[in-house]
Structures are given as C-alpha cells and as structure tokens.
Please model this.
Amino acid sequence: MQKNPDVGIGKRILLADDDKFIMAVMSEFLQLAGYAVTEAADGAAAWELLAGGTEFDLLITDRRMPNMDGLQLAMMVRGDARLFRLPVIILTGAAAQGDIAEGVSAGQFCYLAKPVEEEELLAAVHSALRG
Model:
C-alpha cells in the first residue's frame, strides 16, 4: 500500500489490543494511511492514557483483553463527560450476536469482526472520523 499524504493527516488513533502481532499489523497499516497511532496493551493501559488527558480522535479496541476489556473501556469512555463524543471501534473475534448487542448498547461507533480486512477497517476509520 502506498502512503497517501492527504489521508489521516493530524488524526490521532489509540489502538488497544493484547495481541502484539495484530496490534503491529494494524498499527503499521494505519500509519501507512497517514494516521498517528498510539498503542496500548489492554483496556487499562488505554484508559490510563485517556484519563490522563492524552487527546485522540478515535479509539480502536479489541473486545476481549485482560485487565479491562474493550466493552468496559467503551462504557467508561461513554460515561466520561470529557470523552463521551470520542468515536470507538470495537474489534472482536467473538462476533456472537450477544457480543454485538452488548457492544452496540455500550454506544461505540462500530463493531467489526476479526479478522478484519484492511479496506473494511480503513472505511470504518474514515467514517468514524467524519462522524
């Protein structure tokens, strides 16, 4: 993929996933698309960054992680007056109907099942950022 200098310029994405390989692949792909990516090893690490005042334009989180899962993280974001408008994309290998319903009720922007295709992820990111 060639880097498009006009896409994603100035947009900051927080990416939370406990799978180091998936995180590395997604991070590289998003950076090639022009986004600034900060990585967090789980929901607790992501929340620490968010609660500490680091500003992001989008949160992408795995659904199932140790310490704090993506759904808990999304619910905390929605419950914080400073963060409640932050778009959230939840990725999961657990695409069961109950998981999707839980995720939608948490108020995240989008719910994508893993493995997610690069084009699908990029379309969701662009859509979330246009909000």
